[in-house]
């Protein structure tokens, strides 16, 4: 009976440790694809995204910062930046999240716009390591960005 009780307590502790590990500092990198709604000519529709997120341990909220580079060769004029708040549902191997924030979004090498963004995503993984997919609407840029990547 004692062993059974220890086994049950151990199994209950693993998910809570996994959920706590999703808080704190998490980095990510991924590939982005945009679907433009407007008529404006864009730099590219494919790019790379990287970011950092700080999740609070006992609250389902986080703050995050993203950089999104459009194109295959690096050019600082192709960078878009954003800062967002995220509301999270943290489960042992799954995290669902919604986000909203502000950013500066590049349209062409000489044109950028500032405005809001909103979206959501799903992350699968253990602790800080995992896979994620998200869809974010950049309203001022009149585009929707889908990103798939890794967290670490």
What would your notes on this structure say?
Helix content is about 15%, strand content about 60%. The protein is mainly β. The chain has an eight-stranded antiparallel barrel with strand order 1-2-3-4-5-6-7-8. It has one helix at about 1-20, and strands at about 25-35, 45-55, 60-70, 80-90, 95-110, 110-125, 130-140, 145-150. It contains one helix and eight strands; from the N terminus they run H-E-E-E-E-E-E-E-E. Residues about 15-20 have low confidence and may be disordered. It starts with a helix and ends with a strand. It has a single domain (about 1-150), classed as Beta Barrel (Porin). The chain is elongated and about 70 Å long.
The total beta strand count reads: 8
Give the SSE string.
HEEEEEEEE
Helicity, as a percent range:
10-25%
Number of helices: 1
- Secondary-structure class: mainly beta
Task: Report Rg.
Answer: 18 Å
Q: What would you say the CATH architecture is?
A: Beta Barrel
Which residues sit in consecutive blocks of at least 5 with pLDDT less than 50? 14-19
CATH class: Mainly Beta
Strand order of the largest sheet: 1-2-3-4-5-6-7-8
Overall outline: elongated
Please report which band the strand proportion falls in: under 5%, 5-15%, 15-25%, 25-35%, 35-45% or over 45%: over 45%
Total number of distinct structural domains: 1
Protein traits:
152 residues; mainly beta; Porin; 8-stranded antiparallel β-barrel; 1 helix; elongated
Layout: helices, strands, pairs:
Blueprint lengths: L1 H20 L2 E13 L9 E10 L5 E10 L8 E12 L3 E15 L2 E16 L2 E10 L4 E9 L1
Antiparallel strand pairs: 1-2, 1-8, 2-3, 3-4, 4-5, 5-6, 6-7, 7-8
